[in-house]
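Friendly challenge for the regulars: who can give me the structure tokens for this chain first? No prize, just bragging rights.
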Amino acid sequence: MEAHDIEAIRRILIATGAFIEEEIRVAIELVADALRNPNVDYLVMVIQSEDDVIGYTCYGRAPFTESAYDLYWIALDPVWHGTGAARHLMAATEADVRSRGGRLLLVETASKPSYARTRHFYESIGYREVARIRDYYREGDDKVIYEKRWAAERLEELIIREGAN
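First reply, four minutes later:
Bragging rights claimed.
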């Protein structure tokens, strides 16, 4: 990711129609922090089509944990929905988490109807719902937490195979 990608990410966040102004502001702050302090608290991965950013993830190691990571944001330009680009982006993000020793990736999302497609996406790529906090965001809008785990033995096997290729 480069500094000029911030405006493309802002455009994508707005285009999704899923985020309120405050969420967009915070998302951009995290991206800017990742640029200022690479590989510290927030990691950002972008996916491009030719020279244009079409989506991104922001993630990082959960504070005070040994190998748990949080996915803070994923956004894809709506033009690219349904193309497999989001799956590709998540696979790359998960590979990076595993390469850093991660064994668990947590994702938080909302239960409101407009997020049904998002929840289906996570489930379709192997995440399972592990917690739900009722009325968290507002009445009738729960916080839904998904997880994906990798066993330590399998992680070592993946690293060995990747190194052998």
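Helices lie at 5-16, 21-36, 85-99, 116-124, 152-164. The two ends are 26 Å apart (CA to CA). Your move, everyone else.
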